[in-house]
Design a protein that fits this description.
heterodimer; A: 242 residues; mainly alpha; three-stranded antiparallel sheet; 3 strands; B: mainly alpha; elongated
């Protein structure tokens, strides 16, 4: 059926654009940074901004893959260019945050970062511990739902294709695509007897709040370090967030 | 368009 085909395409788009396979992430989930390694990170991060640059780099790599995911999503490239950009600009970081639940070990609150699982401690040099904790809380709440790969694929697609974003030119066309994705997702959940997932998903506002916190933290960081060259951050990161 | 030229380029690039 067309809906079944859509489901397959969403899953394939997602699998083709994943940085790491879920099996590998599962296998390595107890491979954590040692105390010494965390100290080394913190020492290296001492010049202002080193850790910010590092995280911005990793985030930008993840966002580039979100763009590839979007391009492979059925119907996305048929949207007008303005709307493709609006959806990615508003949704790319949200998709990365959703995907983070695959790379998160809820049992010891660590996330896969640069080759190993890292606790929030590793990111202390960023100077925004509360924000990092909120991200970890979000990943933990999503992890607790034990989503399958197909479910994460649909969650990402639906975070991206959201007709409620501001500045869309052809809202109706986006709404149509969103509607198709929602129907396919519901069918998948019914087939796998996972309908209880929908009411348990974190509210959209939570993702939005994390993204605005990110912007606030970045602005605060840039205010604190006015001498930092804009070129310290990857161009795509600058384009999206500054 | 000018403001989002990298995003624009990534979207246009069919080889990636």
């Amino acid at each position: 059926s067309p809906m079944e085909q859509l489901t397959q395409k969403v899953l394939r788009s997602y699998q083709e654009t994943c940085q790491l396979g879920s099996e590998e992430l599962q296998l390595r989930r107890w491979d954590t940074f040692s105390r010494e390694e965390i100290c080394t990170y913190q020492r290296q991060a001492r010049p202002p901004g080193k850790m910010w640059q590092r995280c911005a780099g990793r985030l930008t790599e993840a966002i580039q893959l979100v763009v590839e995911f979007a391009k492979r999503l059925p119907g996305f490239l048929e949207l007008c260019q303005n709307d493709q950009i609006v959806l990615l600009k508003a949704g790319a970081l949200e998709v990365v945050l959703v995907q983070m639940c695959r790379a998160f070990n809820g049992e010891n609150r660590t996330v896969f970062f640069e080759g190993k699982y890292a606790s929030a401690e590793l990111f202390r040099a960023l100077g925004c511990h509360e924000f990092i904790s909120s991200i970890f809380d979000f990943a933990q709440s999503l992890c607790a739902l034990h989503c399958s790969e197909s479910e994460v694929a649909f969650l990402c697609a639906l975070v991206l294709v959201n007709a409620n974003r501001r500045w869309l030119q052809d809202q109706l066309q986006v709404a149509r695509l969103q509607g198709q994705l929602e129907v396919a997702f519901r069918l998948l959940l019914r087939r796998t007897q996972r309908e209880e997932l929908l009411p348990r998903l974190p509210p959209q506002a939570r993702l939005r709040a994390l993204c605005s916190q990110h912007l606030e933290q970045l602005q605060a960081f840039l205010r604190l370090h006015p001498g930092l060259l804009p070129s310290a951050f990857p161009p795509l990161y600058r384009e999206l967030f500054t | 368009k000018e403001k989002h030229k990298i995003l624009h380029r990534l979207l246009q690039d069919s080889s990636s």
